[in-house]
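Hello,

Our lab assistant flagged a job as stuck in the queue for most of the afternoon. It eventually completed. Since we weren't sure the result was trustworthy after the delay, we are filing this so someone can double-check. Below is the sequence as submitted and the structure that was eventually returned. Let us know if re-running is recommended.
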Amino acid sequence: MDFSADPQFQGLPPLDKMRKVRREIMRTINEIRTKFGNNNVFPDLFANRAANEYAEYLLNSEDQENPEVLKAITEKHLIIGE
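-- returned structure --
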């Protein structure tokens, strides 16, 4: 459905293009977990934002993985643990 011509939706930002992909991935993971008798997993918005930011860093940086940058990003998004 295209709501771009509807005036009540004119001020909203565009939808994330990856949202449907992430939803399908989570659905598939949960189907597999259910098949093996495990509990479902649910998306964590803070972890998702941190993962997206670190992925952007990796795509745009000449450096390989950098633990210092990863630590800074996780602290920025209030992620606890390793």
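-- support follow-up --
The delay was a queue issue, not a problem with the job. The result is valid. The chain is about 50% helix and 0% strand. The chain has a mean pLDDT of 83.
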